[in-house]
Design brief:
Blueprint: H1 3-8, E1 20-22, E2 39-41, E3 49-52, H2 55-72, E4 91-94, H3 100-118, E5 127-139, E6 145-148, E7 157-165, H4 168-171, E8 190-193, H5 199-203, E9 210-213, E10 219-224, E11 228-231, E12 240-251, H6 253-259, H7 262-269
Length: about 270
């Protein structure tokens, strides 16, 4: 399915883990005892949508980048923290959303991001996502992206990362990386960080506060723009190519009224 096909007819398959698990109900042992009903509940800190895009879609985007975006040489680097400078091909380019390919791409990612907002297993919010900027990142051996978060023009926002090209040295990394013993398993991975986390923290019942996403061609993640993330350097031949986007969130009047915030109410009128 090509980019054009997907933008006009989009089917989304989603699966979200349940955060609640019911425990067996206790039984009384005597007349003085009583039944108990307990649940173990995980309190999540954010929702994330993971999507595997069709190869034809990804190929269309890569072709447009090679033929239009790179030759245009409109750098986005001044607005980013990425240390993408170890190779003469290392670069970060603006990806316009106002041409035919850009409009089709925006339509697709807006629908996906809006689904994350509206789905009952997502944020269950009467809101719409509106992508306002996209850019590409072309990194090579030794390039990296330090811990950072993205901005938006509204009080709440979303961000997206899509993997377009993945070097073989990253593809060969294990699916379940080890963070210990100098394994190098997370080279080239994207780290999503909500807090610092050590083995001692886990022993003290603190849940894992970091997740590392292994790049895969066509794989896309959408997440809250405040989420701190980073890109680990890799060591080997090939280009690690990604595209990122930021979304404003446009809430309905009913949604904003729930929060009763003067700042949010100004956004309704703008």
């Amino acid at each position: 399915m090509s980019l054009k096909d997907l933008s006009s007819s989009l089917g989304i398959k989603k699966s979200f883990d349940k955060n609640e698990r019911e425990l067996p109900q206790g039984k009384p042992k005597s007349d003085n005892s009583f039944d108990t009903h307990a649940k173990i509940k995980t309190i999540p800190s954010y929702k994330l949508m993971a999507v595997q895009m069709p190869d034809a879609f990804t190929d269309d985007i890569n072709r447009h980048i090679d033929e239009v975006i790179i030759p245009s040489k409109v750098s986005h680097a001044s607005q980013l923290v990425g240390q993408i400078n170890r190779n003469e091909k290392s670069s970060q380019w603006t990806f316009p959303l106002d041409d035919e390919i850009g409009k089709d791409f925006k339509l697709v990612i807006d629908r996906l991001a809006t689904s994350l907002l509206r789905d009952p297993t997502g944020y269950n919010r009467d809101s719409k996502a509106d992508a306002f900027e996209t850019w590409t990142v072309h990194s090579y051996e030794g390039d990296y992206n330090p811990l950072h978060a993205h901005g938006c023009q509204t009080t709440a926002g979303l961000s997206m990362i899509m993997y377009l090209k993945v070097p073989k040295c990253i593809e060969e990394k294990p699916s379940f990386p080890s963070l210990h013993n100098a394994s190098g398993d997370i080279d080239g991975h994207t780290g999503l960080i909500t807090s610092t986390n050590t083995i001692q923290d886990v022993y003290r019942l603190k849940l894992d506060a970091q997740e590392y996403i292994k790049p895969k061609k066509g794989f896309m993640i959408i997440f809250p723009n405040w989420l701190q993330h980073c890109v680990m350097p890799f060591f080997g031949e090939g280009e690690r190519r990604t595209m990122s986007a930021n979304f404003n969130i446009k809430d309905s009047k009913e949604t904003i009224a729930q929060f009763k915030s003067p700042t949010l109410n100004k956004e309704i009128k703008s």
